[in-house]
Specification:
- It contains two helices and no strands.
- The chain has one domain.
- The longest helix has 15 residues.
- It has 64 residues and is mostly helical.
- The model has no long low-confidence stretch (mean pLDDT 93).
Length: 64
């Protein structure tokens, strides 16, 4: 069986543009063979060989 595991990161950025750049970097990072090897090394079996990672556009976090 396959399951979708959503992961949430909270990052610091000066503005929306910088947050978007970070999202693009994370997208590239999650698709690299070394990251997949590290995940699989922990015993996590990725579906489709790479887990089909998706990085969505950043949204601002509400501050109190």
């Amino acid at each position: 069986m396959r399951y979708r595991q959503l992961v949430h990161f909270v990052i610091e950025a000066r503005d929306d543009r910088e947050a978007s750049e970070v999202a693009k970097k994370l997208d590239k990072l999650l698709k690299t063979p070394l990251v997949r090897m590290a995940i699989q090394g922990e015993g996590v079996q990725l579906a489709y060989g790479d887990g089909r990672p998706v990085v969505y556009a950043p949204t601002r976090e509400a501050t109190a």
